[in-house]
Amino acid sequence: MNMQCIHIQTFSPQYFSFQNHSFLFSQPKFKQRKFTFFTVRKPSWLKYSARGFGRSTVRSSVSEGDQQKQVVKRAYPYHEIEPKWQNYWEKNRTFRTPDEIDTSKPKFYVLDMFPYPSGSGLHVGHPLGYTATDILARLKRMQGYNVLHPMGWDAFGLPAEQYAIETGTHPKITTLRNINRFRTQLKSLGFSYDWYREISTIEPDYYKWTQWIFLQLLKRGLAYQAEVPVNWCPALGTVLANEEVVDGVSERGGHPVIRKPMRQWMLKITEYADRLLEDLDELDWPESVKEMQRNWIGRSEGAEMEFYVLDSDGKERNIKITVYTTRPDTIFGATYLVMAPEHPLLSSLVSMAQRKNVEEYKDLASRKSDLERTELQKEKTGVFSGCYARNPANGEAIPIWVADYVLGSYGTGAIMAVPAHDTRDYEFAAKYDIPIRWVVMPDDESLNESGKAYSSEGTVINSSNLSSGLDINGLSCKEGASKVIEWAEKTGNGKKKINYKLRDWLFARQRYWGEPIPVIFLDGTGENVPLHETELPLTLPELDDFTPTGTGEPPLSKAVSWVKTTDPSSGKPATRETSTMPQWAGSCWYYLRFMDPKNSKELVDKTKERYWSPVDVYVGGAEHAVLHLLYARFWHKVLYDIGVVSTKEPFKCVINQGIILGEVQYMVCKDADGNYISADSADTMNEYHQESIPEEKVKKSGESFVLKDNPKIRLIARAHKMSKSRGNVVNPDDVVTEYGADSLRLYEMFMGPFRDSKTWNTSGIEGVHRFLGRTWRLIVGSPLPNDTFKDGSVVIDEEPTLEQLRTLHKCIAKVAEEIEGTRFNTGISAMMEFINAAYKWDKHPRKIIEPFILLLAPYAPHMAEELWFRLGHSNSLAYESFPKANPDYLKDTTIVLPIQINGKTRGTIQVEEGCSEEEAFKLASVDEKLSKFLDGKSVKKRIYVPGKILNVILDRQSAKAGVR
Fold first, then answer.
1. Widest CA span in the chain
2. What keyword terms does UniProt attach to this protein (predicted)?
3. Residue 264 contacts by C-beta under 8 Å, 6 or more apart in sequence?
4. Could you give the CA distance from residue 223 to residue 772 in angstroms, rounded to a whole number?
């Protein structure tokens, strides 16, 4: 007997079938288990199939002397092809964009948003955008464009510094290690980046020019220092941006955050507010992104109105509160004022009775970010200041409240609250029982009785006062607003004002791992002196201790020998700035450096910048819609003003890819006794809990998921964004090992529309993997008995048929159109249809197969290169001309011809226009549906109307026999 030992190693529940023996193994998902079975009379190599999801490998150990054989069956030899062509591309610099290029050719600059190289490496969500830009880059090269497709690293930032604090490892060491891991992973996926142009924000040769840009901002008064309230995190020892604070704690680490005033560097982005707003209209960006930027900038026209504070006797004090309003027409409806907790006048007017309450409320508000405070859905909170102000329009004394839904950084830090005509004010007034007065009548009077605030326009009512001399009753809101502004300016009660929600950019972080700010302060006077450009780069000093000082002083203050310096101009002792730039700094302009990465004399060569600018397609997540994109636009406009760049905008087209969610998790609800209950009824029960259910116990029923064994039990099915904390991260390295890089690329593009969110399903990748396997076998041939493939291909040098040409050119037209429109999933579908059709052909001519390989190349470059090579080509196909569809083959010259048997329609056939009666009859005779009516029957006559109908009249006796 030939005894063999079969070892199975699996990472998830699997059902395996070996020859005539089947085994079902159950074990916790992703927990590695090994099983050993002994069988007899097996061949020297083992054929197997595995059904299910997850990864599995099978090897056969033959006990014949010391001989051991290992066989892994694959759909095609991707494990050999992919390393081979990755090495070829690197060795031959296939995707190197030379410094000197033919500028008469069109250019295509396609860019991914700068990745931050974290220690966990890539997960399968990351390559979604990278694959899309790579497909576009490969297409444009083949279309004759000069293509710029670079990659680099946004490598400064808080995560690396926190890791350094926790482990005692210098952040540069961990950052470079992470970069190497990311680079290796990206190369394993076959992306056609020009690695010669690779840059990193942590390299002095790069951040020299980040510092140079800061000096230009300082020179033009666009960088300054100010005492501003900031989000200070004592545990992290740094100032955090609003978006880095969630529910009063730091997004990273969950540490408490407080608001406190600190002297900080600011960038005057507000100077460019109008230009940032106006130029949005010219951009090919998602409308949602443009709208987010418009809202963030928040330009509004209105008025500043003056409200005098009253003393306890109701007389005006020498304190006035200035409010900004976009609706001066509603001033008669202002029944209270609201001041921000951080308003500078608050402490001088709050009553003694309310002082304690106000101070406690201010402390609570200081722990919230601006984003949390202004969230529309949150419940409004506030506290009465204990004092009143006079409404200048009607002379009424109205209460002054303190509430955190008003920000000290917007407008004047105070508002006149008109609860009848503002939703936030209405909710606040209703909660604290403050009067609500209607001063605008809607055109639809029924809205006046809705019990809600009416914030739109209409006719002004209840808005006249003889003492103030203001009467706007009966006017439209627009007319009323103009008249109120005119009255306010005439009486000294206010003035017209344009305002912005946009605040100046806080540009300093109290941490070590960032770009040093190139400024020194003269000892004694504190005067700031910018470094001379020849002194750049100002490099980071080496530090062993990166922990926060606990005093607000940045960690750089510990580098005493670096901090203490001398002003080179005057020779006076000076101190260096110890705050560093925020992470956004390096990513604001990196797209320019890619155009000329080795230039040591200027930020970017003007000739190169004029050719490559702007970025044609910029792909990244929607989470960067406001901050990164707005900051980059601001810096670009400054560089435009000083003549460094030639375009007003940096990014011509922005595309946001969707998020890839982790695999669907199925949960069943159980009552207190442990019985299954349907998710429909769970919410009505007082007590129930959820339990995870494996996928094999689930089936889909309509739009819901139910238990296979009990379809009445509806389950909860949900997918979450991939994260280590949820344990739903899928490592692309594992997918590449099991299915190959081309399969991963293809699957990510095939999952659904590029811009939509999608749910990862490991078993789903098998479909595109089978497609690639079918493509390989169609061109190379079936595998040999030992599961290897012969050299060369089965393609022949014969002329193609008309049907083959039509099938090919329809595929060409579809694939090209879908790539250009970033509808990658439907482009893959078109190629799948082509392969399905090609399998029905007896022969596969070179003139059909070669163009198809070129269509496949942007999506599955490794396989395409290998197939191209097997067809006799010695050079890479990366610069071969992308196929163009011939319009002559796109015309649909076939028609549907109804077929009647003895006057009764029995089916249809497809025929060419101008088809003869004989040809039509032959096609009908071999049609699967029609042949049963015609086989062996005697035809009496045929009635044929070309292009309309074929009626076959059978001999009467023959027809009867057919019926019997």
1. 121
2. Ligase
3. 225, 226, 227, 228, 230, 239, 506, 507, 508, 579
4. 55
Residue with tokens 């507010």: 273
| Integer Cα distance of 945 and 954 in angstroms | 18
Q: Where are the beta strands (DSSP E) in 80-169?
A: 107-112, 146-148, 152-153
Q: Give the residue carrying structure tokens 């003869």.
A: 916
Query: What pLDDT does 73 receive?
Result: 65
User: How much is the average pLDDT of 440-466?
Assistant: 85
| CA 528 to each of CA 508, 553, 585: distance values in angstroms, whole numbers, following the listed order | 15, 18, 21
Rounded distance, CA 431 to CA 781, Å? 77
- Helical (H) or strand (E) element with 320: strand 316-325
Which residue has better confidence, 291 or 19?
A: 291
Alpha carbon distance 614, 107 (integer Å) = 10
Helices (H) then strands (E): counts for the chain: 28, 45
DSSP line for 428-478? HHHHHT------EE-SSGGGGGSSS---S--EE-S-EETTTTEE-TTSBHH
Q: What is the mean pLDDT of the chain?
A: 87
Ramachandran assignment for 46, one of left (phi > 0), alpha (psi -120 to 50 degrees), beta (any other): beta
Radius of gyration of the CA atoms of the chain, in A: 36
H or E stretch at 239 = strand 238-240
Amino acid at 44: S
What DSSP string describes 163-213? HHHHH---HHHHHHHHHHHHHHHHHHTT----GGG-EETTSHHHHHHHHHH
Calculate the dihedral angle through the C-alpha atoms of 868, 872, 873, 874, rounding to the nearest 10 degrees: 120
Q: How confident is the model over 942-953, as pLDDT tens digits?
A: 999 998 999 999
* pLDDT tens digits, 160-211: 888 888 888 899 999 999 999 999 999 999 999 999 999 999 999 999 999 9
Query: Is the Cβ–Cβ distance between 644 and 604 less than 8 Å?
Result: yes
Contact between 270 and 457 (Cβ < 8 Å): no
Q: pLDDT tens for residues 406-427?
A: 988 778 999 999 999 999 999 9
Q: Residue 251 is encoded by which pair of tokens?
A: 């997004």
Locate 185 and state its tokens.
């992973």
Going by C-alpha positions, the residue among 96, 98, 99 that lies closest to residue 605 is 99
The pTM for the full model equals: 0.79
Distance CA 775, CA 261 (A): 65
Check pLDDT > 70 for residue 530.
yes
Burial class (CB in 10 A: 0-12, 13-18, 19+), 25: middle
Phi, psi of 52, rounded to the nearest 5 degrees: 135, -155
- What is the spatial distance between Cα 819 and Cα 68, in angstroms, rounded to a whole number? 47
CA distances in angstroms from 508 to 263, 331, 339, listed in the order given: 10, 40, 28
Dist. CA 776–CA 772, nearest whole Å: 6
Question: Residue 99 in contact with residue 194, Cβ under 8 Å?
Answer: no
Q: Which of 213-222, 357-366, 943-952 has the highest mean pLDDT?
A: 213-222
Backbone angles phi, psi at 111, to 5 degrees: -140, 140
| Kind of pairing between the strands at 258-267 and 505-506 | antiparallel
Gap between the Cα atoms of 139 and 110, Å rounded:
11
Give the tokens for residue 23: 């085994």
Q: Terminal CA-to-CA distance of the chain, rounded, Å?
A: 60
Contact 50, 23 (CB under 8 A): no
User: If residue 356 lies in a helix (H) or strand (E), which one and from where to where?
Assistant: helix 355-365
CA-CA-CA-CA dihedral for 238, 240, 245, 250, to nearest 10: -20
- The two tokens of residue 701 are 């029923």
Please state whether the peptide bond connecting residue 614 to the residue before it is cis, i.e. omega within 30 degrees of 0: yes
